[in-house]
Amino acid sequence: MSQPDNLRLLHTMVRVRDVDASLDFYCNLLDMKVRRRADYEDGRFSLIYLGYNDETEGAVLELTDNWDDTEPYSHGSGYGHIAIGSDDIYALCKKLEDAGVNVTRAPGPMKNPDGVTEIEIAFIEDPDGYKIELIQYPFPPAT
Asked: How far apart are the first and last CA of the chain?
């Protein structure tokens, strides 16, 4: 089945409690750029869109800052993770660990379902505890 021309993934949204800590994490540690921001005074929330590319070129991450919420958010049992590709997850994990980021799975190989091809992965957590999978990119050639 081919991808329909009129559909594409736009963004993933996560609610954040401390927008400054989240922006520091995603922009300064993971090198994303703020693509746009909208502050809704009447609704008391902000939407901040981050990414590696402009929204016209690829999916972005939407951070929702509900100004009056002070308690941590529950992630529920349905949330899995956000995946980010890197050309050197070992160096990236070292940088993140040095900055105090919780690396929950150190970089290392994971066998693909074919049982042969290994990809390198790691897991970290953002300031709100959301899991992020780091994947060594480009992927090794399929065998």
From this structure: 23
